[in-house]
Structures are given as C-alpha cells and as structure tokens.
Amino acid sequence: MQELWVAKETKKKERIIKGRDLVDVVFSWSLLDVLNSNLYEGQVGKIPSTFTSTKEYFDSFVNPIIEETHEALLSSMRTLRRAPAFKFWEIKPAEKDFKPPKDLYYKVTLQMMTGSNTINGGQNLLEVNDLIAVTDKRPIRIDDLRFSNEPHVLALVCGVNEDNPHLITILASKPIIFDDDDDNGTLTKRGKGQRKSLSVFGVNLINMMTNIRIWTALHPNLEGGNLKLISRVLQSNNEVDGGSCVACKENSKGVASHHSTRTLRSFKLNTSQEDAILHCLEAKRCYHSNNIKLIWGPPGTGKTKTTSVLLLHLLKMRCRTLTCAPTNIAVLEVCSRLVKLVSESSLRFGGYGLGDIVLFGNKERMKIDDREDLFDVFLEYRVEELYRCFMAMTGWRANVKRMICLLSDPEEEFRQYNRVNETNLSFKEFVQERFSRLRKELQHQFTTLCMHVPTSLLSYRVVEKMNQTNYLLRDIAVSDVMGDSNESCHGSMKHVLKEDERLENDSRKQDCLEMLTSICESINLPDFISKLELKDLCLANAYLLFCTASSSAKLHMSTPVELLVIDEAAQLKECESAIPLQLPGLQHAILIGDEKQLPAMIQSKIASEADLGRSLFERLVLLGQNKQLLNMQYRMHPSISIFPNREFYDMKILDAPSVRVRSYEKNFLPEKMYGPYSFINIAYGREQFGEGYSSKNIVEVSVVAEIVSKLYSVSRKTGRSISVGVISPYKAQVFAIQERIGKNYNTGGSFTVSVRSVDGFQGGEEDIIIISTVRSNGKGAIGFLSNQQRTNVALTRARYCLWILGNEATLTGNKSVWRQLVDDAKARDCFHDAEDDESLAKCIERSTTALDDLDKLQNKKLITFENSIWKVWLSYEFLKSLEAIANSEINKKVMRFLEKLSNGKELQQEVEVECEDLWRQQEIDDGLSLIWAIDIFKKNNHHVQVLKIWQVLQSSDVSCATEHLEKHYRRYTKTKIKRCRYVCSQGDFFIPMKWPVDSDYCTKKDIVCDVSRSFALLSVVEEEETVTP
After folding, report:
1. Which residues are in the DNA2/NAM7 helicase-like C-terminal domain (predicted)?
2. DSSP β-bridge partners for residue 675
C-alpha cells in the first residue's frame, strides 16, 4: 500500500507534539487539495480481516484515517458560512517554542465578533486540536480563502488558557505575514513581529482531537503501548475469549463463582444475562492469559442493565475497570445506571464509596449541567468540591485543628483572637460564633470527604469516626465548650455548673477531641492539594472510570487499569478502540454491542469502502469468535418485534413475559391502522431534494404532523402520558418535520415528541414510533434506506406502537428488506392505505394541491396579479416556508392577501400605520404570520419599488426572523433605505416608484419625475407570470 505520509526523525531536544505527523500531512494540503474529493482515490487499501503482525495491524488504518480527516475538512469547507468565526486582536510568536521553519508557534488573543458566526452560551471560542484557517478577511465562502490578499494559513490550536479562553497558542502551517498598511500607520510584521488591532480573521474548521489520538495509538512506539490484547486479535482465534485456561475454569467453580451466582439473583436478571456476567467474571479471574469477551445485546434485551450489574460486581471486587463508549450519550447512560444501582445497594454515610467512581470528559459536550444525577461522580465537580477541603488555611485539617484548640482551651483562643482583632465581642459571643462556624464547615467537609475521596485513601473506620464526630458536634452546646470558664474578667457573673452537668460536658468534649485527633492522624493526605493533583489523585485511585474511547487517552500515564469494558462496541471504529486497548496494565476486555445495528459513522466514501467504520466487535464475530447472546427482549410489543427478530436475528430472541401480557397492548387512536404495528401506504407522496442534497417528502411530513396532532388531542383530553418518536433516515426530512411541528408540543407536560434521524435514535425508545421512509418514485430507488442495520434500528425503537409511512410501489420495487416488510404487513393484515383515514386523506389532498401551486411559482422572482399595479417579489425563504406548511388552504389565504396588497389600495392602509422597521407583519391564520416589506429590485437600468415577501412562519418564531432581517437591512445604504421608505400616493392608491441606476441620491427632482411616470412603471418589469388565486 502506498504510504500517504513519511515518518520524520525527531531530534531529542525538539518539542514532541502528539500526532504531529498527521498534522504535517494536513498542513501540506493546498486549498485545491482540500477541495479535491478524489485526492486519495486508489491510494487507500481495504483493511484486512486478519493480520500477521501488530505493525501490519496498525499500518492498515493509517491511510484510511488520513482520508477520513481530509473528507472532514472538505465537508467543513462546504459549510464555511455556518462555521464559528473570530478576529485576532493580537498575535506574536511564542518565545521559547517559535523555531522556524517548522515549529511556528504563536500566542494569539482572540476578539469576540458579533453576528451569526460567534459561539453562544459563553463556551470557549476554540478548543485544543481545533484546526482553523487564518486569513486577512472574514471568511464566509471558500472564495474568501482562495482570493484573499495573502493565502490562507492552516493552524492547529495547541493550548487554551483555562481562565481566559480568548488566549490561545497555535501551531501554524506557514509564517503568518501581515501586509503594509500605510494609511493606518501600521508596519509589516514578518516572522517574529508583533501587531495589535490586526485585520486577521480565523474560522474554525474541524476538531482533530479524536483522529490525533487514534494516530498516536497507531504509532505505539512513541508511547511504549501495552500490546497484549492487540496481539490477541490479529488472527482468527477462538481461544481469544480465554477458553483455553483450564486452571482458571476449575477455580471459578469454587466458592467465588457460587457467591456471584447467588448475588446476581437479587437483581432479577434472566438466565442469558446471568450467564453473560458470570462468563465475564470468570475471564476477570484469569491471570494466565489475556481475554476478550463479547456480549451480544440486540435491541431491548437489557444490555445496559446487564452492563451496570457487571460493573457493580467489579466494583465490589475492587477491580480497576475502565468503561468507555463511542459517544458521550452512551457513556452517560451506562454511568447513570451504575450510580443508581450503587446508590440503591451499597452506599452508607452520605455517599461513602462514590469516590471509587469517576466520570470524566468534556463538560459542555457531555451537557453535565443537565445531568444532576451524575454531579457527584463527574471529575470536574469532584475536584472543585475537594479543592475547598484541601486549602491550607480553610481546609478540613485546618478546621479540625481550630476545633481542637477551641474545645481544649477556649479562653486562650479568645485571648489570641483579641490580640489581632479589635472587637466588642464577649467571650460567650466569641465562642458561639467560632464554634457554630467551625461545626458547620466540618460537617460539610466531612461529608464531602466521605463522598468524594476514594475508599483506598479513606478507610471505612475513619468514615465512621467522621460520622460520629458530626453527631457529637451537633449535641455539644456553647455552654459545653465554655465549661468552667466565666466572664468575670469582662464584667459578668461566673456561671457555676452542677457536678453531673460538668462531668457530662467533659465527657462529650473529651470524646469529640479524641475523635478529631484520631481523624487527623488517620488520613495520610497533604494539608494542601492543587486542583491538578486532586484530578490525578481521583483518577489514579478510582476503581470504576467512565469516559469516551477517545478520552481514555488521558489515562495512559495514570495508574494501570486491569479490565476494559466497551459499551456500544459495534459502533466504535476498530482503530479508535486501539486507544483504550493499549492502556498500561490492561489484562482483559469485554465488548458489548450488536453488529446488526449501526456501525460507526464515516464521512468519506473512500474510507468507508476500506472498512474504516468496521468495529473490532464485528470483525471478531466475522472470524467466528463466541459471543454471549442476551436472548430476551423487554421493550417491544410482540407484533413489533416479530419482523426484526425473524429478519435479523433468526428468531433467537424471546419476548419477555412482561410484553406478552394483554395490558401491554395500548390503543392510542381508535382506527385499526393505529394498532401495535402498521404499514401506512402513502401512494401520492412527493420525493424532493432538501438542503445538502438529502431527500424529503412533504406529503409524509404533513401526514406525520396530522397523526401527532391527533395523539396530542387524545393526551390532552384523557390526561394520558404519551411519548412519540418520529424517525427518518434523511436529515432533510427530519428538519422538515421539526420545522412543521415546531415547539407546539414542548410544553414539558405528559405529551412529548422527539424527531431524529435513525442514527440519532440508536439506543433510544418511545411509546409510539412513526417512521417516515420518504422515498416515493417510479424507479423503486430507495438509496441508503436499503441498509439493513439502519432499518433494524428504526424498527426496534417502539414500545407499544410502530407506524411506518411509505410508498408501497417504491419500497417493493427492489429486492431490499423493505419488500419483505411490506409483504409481511400484508400477510399479517397490518397494511393500510392512508386515505382510509378521512383526516389523513384531507391532509394529503391539501399537501399535494399546495405543492402543485408551488410548482407554478418555482424560479419566479417576480409575479404579477391580474389588475395589480405592484410587482410581488417572492423570496426563497417564502417559497420554502410555504413548502414546509404544504397546506392549500393556507396558500390561498396568503395569495389572496398578496393580491389585495398589490392593487395599491390595501397597501395604502397598511403603510399609513406608523412603523419603525422596514418590514411588516400580517396574521394569515391562527398562529401563522406573513412577513413582508417594500424593497428595491434592479431591472432594466432602474431601481424599482416592489413588494418583498419574506416568509410565512409561526407567530412565536417572528422575533427570530426579525433579528435576521435586522442584520439583512444593516447592509443597505442610506439611499436604499430612503427609497424603501418613500411612498407616493395617487388618490386612494399607493404607486410604486423607480429611480435610474446611476442615481446615487433620492432627490426631489427624481421624485417629481417618477411621480409623473408612475403608471408607466407597470411595463418596466417583465411579466414573469400572472397569478390568479
């Protein structure tokens, strides 16, 4: 295979950057290279199924990763307008690291930019390993990079200041050169120069973090990686799961195995789940070989529950285990389930034991702020909590010592206090204030230590003492602290205690003092620990760690990990699994997944054909490795599960008793077609291309909206909780459905709607699933809808009802799984025509009529109504909004209003109402508004006043649309705005005006001239089409 990169020898003193070879490859691409989708065509070989050596194994992934990185960069160029942009306020070479011609490190101060391209919500402008393009103008389109005065420079973000994210360090592909600007008095700065208030802009293209980590894992010589498990998966080998270790199998039949079996029964697992867990625990006990176990978890079979129970047992065995997954969502789900199990089964003393569980990763991408159930185990929050306990002056040890001094000799503490403080506090007031504050702080700090310090650093006996101390401190009164002390020296009478009270007081204080002293002596941790040290301490001493596979790279320098668990393993690229598989000390791995569901997402067609998206799980299955099947599903009504079970799993999956009972059958709508399982035929759908060349079907959008509306009505009338999921394999269809449904059902009540792509729904489930298949054509072409893994995911998300919308003729016009699905629905009397439902029939009729009307308006910028004097300019957004609504009745109302407006008389009434903005709003229907304005259109060497129709949208969305219009009109000159605002009336009519193109000002002479010729304007603009509503 041709190498797409050449390894370079690195001098010992040269700064080593992880993945630098990959970065240099990216830096070598010109803009034409980036835009060439076939740059590496014929140079990326297919990844084999078996390998002769670890070198061949790693090398086989190198070229596909380069191609995938190239495709990601190319894709970002296509959407440059939507990419976050920023301006450089200051840039200067990094003093120590700037070493031309290769190590071009710069220190940069970023300037926030207003507008649509800035990052919202206070997030960091940039992150480490973001790849940016630097140019001398704000880049909006590719041409801005191609035709700038200076060629654009690619740069990699190497560092971001945590306290001030506007301060970053970048590695540039070329020296950043600034032009002379004599008018502004600035100087050209080359190489080591410096310049403030620069006209230098950047745009964030892609983040290379994951690919750089993969690249580093593919070159383990630099890191000295652990290759024990990698070596086990090179060839077809049924012994990879540890089946050959007879000694360990014999030992596992002893007491430990029996105890595990008895414990598992308390979690009410089925036999296949118990067997899978015991099989993994058996592998964990093996010290003679390195094992990789596979757990096969089809949809709804309790894969996450099985994983969490397995992890709970590993926690009790104090086995240091890393659990990772391809996505943050998957990691959060399994971690959440484990924390819930731990909280229900084994936590004592306010969370003691949670310190053995650590979740870490990118806080923003994980959206941890929305996951309160995970606050106590998330590393960043834990470090913040512990940091306050380990501050030198106010930490737990300092407070314990202060409390010991106060209880031992309160009078001496009071004297020392008075030496440094000028106060009028009495002795009693001092004791009361000091004791109350210290007691409160210690109670909080003891609780924090119990919850967040790993159990290996904080014994159970010490935790008991902390708990007892909290109780003692709660029972001690201020008078107990004062003891025999009196305030006679301060002018007060001595307080004498009775003998029995004095003895009880002394006993309480003495017990508390002994406890506090013992706690201090028992915890062998420094008085002060920095945040970085706390982070390392938590990671190094936890038993269960959770993160994405990519983030596991952070553990390569930490305490060795014994066991690796990969959830959703079939969705993880094999080369990415190489990151955690090489962790120091790793002995065994457990892969949990289902190769019958979606694989990893690959952007490059070339890389996909090379099998870059194939997982280690899938390859081992293809090589015949044994896998433990979870064979009972708890999610789907049997009418839903039967087809995917037969089609994808050879009827190996059993329906759990809980889904076979009659009460599991739910009737949400009365019609027969809304039973547990239905194929609803939409014979007159319209397949179109949406944004990004993705397919959409507006008729199906309308049907989905109608069904959702009916379900919502049922929920409101009955108070019934209903969760609905709408799935489509096409992004354009997902967007169209989201746009149609809008925020109507986001009320936070008992009715919820989630609209996502098939890929976005993997792992999810809802009461009702509606699938929009989109494809409707005479060729029987269904594109990537034919993908069986994608089909399997879509068909297995519903609990009670699955309704599939599609065109029978199109879906059966090929030999894909969809033909079998339609035939199966007919055989089971689950096939229905949408027109059988009267409301759906009307909905389809409205949609098809509306689409026919819109077809007449396509590619027509200006239209003229009969007997009108104003031309009407239909914007692209307006046509798209009508298409999204797809309702012929709404269309008619809109066109009637436009006809009235264009006759000039209705326009006079509208314009006479004072308005500061250039645009106007007209309510068309309940909840729908039309946005329009008087604008200027250039035609035949004249600027002509026309009616610009901007958009029809939900009234609740008008504010967002007007923000967009404000930005649009800011680009208008003062002259153009004056012309938009200028009105000319003749009698009861408002007349459109025109001005010569070469006229720069709106003069009185121009106006008078145009008034005399106002009716002649009707012939200025060519008649594109006469419309009759």
Report:
1. 612-808
2. none
